[in-house]
Design goal:
Length: about 270
């Protein structure tokens, strides 16, 4: 039984199926970990979403910011625009409600104790241990699965509050958690979320640092697998895997086998 983590799909169905062929994926025995952003930008978001859902327990996906935006569109909390027009086929599909309900019940974080590996879309806060990351994610998951989920989807937009405090409450608290787990890239020296820089980290202002470079983070010692940051690209370290390698931009789609002492990296060409 193999466990593979795969970077952001963003509707790139054909490269995804090519990658599954390349790794010899067997849905009866193997497991996929997907870093989220299943949909948007690529040409086949509907087909990608249907296929991942069809894999059942063989695929574990966390929610990314594009997935959450699809949920907000479906809930009528935001208007459709050209940037997200690739999601129209999902919104008009006959199985739309089934797909949206399934997506709404996916987690924002996943942890496997045997692999000591945490899966998130964008990252996790330096003050959050693995257990606290899962607990914070669960707060949002409960709200997304509840009757008032549409209100949350409308309230999640915005960059504030940008600093974590255990005293945060209500939608401000949930918005911070969502931003941390699905949008974060850079932090300032006081560990405030910073959304002004989305390119590779090295040319960023000296007072900014990538979230994973914080000193003595609470999750230290656990391997963290994430996507979201295509400008960062592939990073394969014992305790860190960055897997968004820009498939939707014509670069690569990447899989890394997690259940081996030395991770095995497999790539296919991205969307053309």
């Amino acid at each position: 039984m193999a466990v593979y983590a795969i970077g952001d799909l963003q509707g790139c169905y054909d490269p995804f199926r090519s990658l599954l062929d390349a790794i010899g994926f067997d849905a009866a025995n193997d497991t996929l970990w997907l870093t989220g952003d299943l949909v948007n930008r690529g040409p086949k978001s509907l087909k990608t979403l249907r296929f991942v859902k069809s894999l059942g327990d063989s695929a574990i996906t966390v929610l990314g910011n594009h997935d959450l935006h699809l949920l907000a569109l479906a809930a009528g909390q935001v208007r459709e625009g050209k940037r997200f027009e690739s999601l129209g086929k999902i919104l008009n599909a006959p199985d739309r409600d089934e797909l949206i309900a399934w997506l709404r019940h996916q987690p924002l974080a996943h942890y496997d104790a045997d692999l000591d590996t945490l899966l998130v879309h964008a990252g996790t806060h330096p003050h959050w241990s693995v257990n606290k990351t899962l607990a914070r994610a669960h707060e949002v998951e409960v709200a997304l699965r509840g009757k008032g989920y549409a209100t949350l989807l409308g309230k999640m937009y915005g960059n504030t509050p940008n600093q974590w405090s255990g005293s945060l409450k209500g939608y401000k608290r949930l918005r911070f958690i969502i931003n941390c787990l699905t949008r974060m890239r850079m932090l300032d020296r006081d560990l405030r979320l910073n959304f002004t820089h989305s390119g590779p980290p090295w040319p960023a202002h000296k007072n900014l640092l990538p979230w994973y470079r914080s000193v003595e983070p609470a999750w230290s010692g656990t391997r963290v697998v994430f996507g979201h940051w295509s400008a960062l690209g592939l990073i394969v370290l014992p305790d860190l895997l960055s897997l968004d390698t820009g498939c939707v931009w014509g670069r690569q789609l990447t899989a890394v086998r997690l259940d081996k002492r030395l991770p095995r990296v497999i790539q296919v060409d991205g969307q053309r």
